[in-house]
Amino acid sequence: MTDWDARVEAVWADERLTDAERIPLIDALASERGPDDARALFERAGARDSAGIETEAVELYRAALAAGLDEEHRAQAVIQLASTLRNLGEIADSLELLRAERGRGGAFADAASAFYALALASAGEPRAAAAVALEALAPHLPRYTRSVTAYARELAADAG
Asked: What Cα–Cα distance (Å) separates residue 73 from each residue in 35, 45, 63, 89?
């Protein structure tokens, strides 16, 4: 972890800050990396997203993705962008992003599945949402993995 990463993490971890107070601190750190730096754009997007300034966050997430994030931050940016789009009522776009992200696998596949389930629920597809959530949860259960996986498949087939 670089010094910059540690300072960014410290701002996010400071529970004394309000979301609005966090924005200028993140912006100051982002300015150290330049206006077109992918990580700086990503952190600025996240700060605005947390503060409820979602339309600005969407623009910054898209810019961060276009600028080329490393895989860890790319996955997070896609998930966060998709979640924000869902909150803004752009459910079809949210579903599209999350469907693709789930298909990529990797460390954030379960997180993508959780937000995909939320987007499906927002789209009026609660059975499909439950199937996705259960399918993501099943491998983490100490027992009943096979049963829960089978039930998830049944729900998905019924949601069809």
From this structure: 17, 12, 13, 24
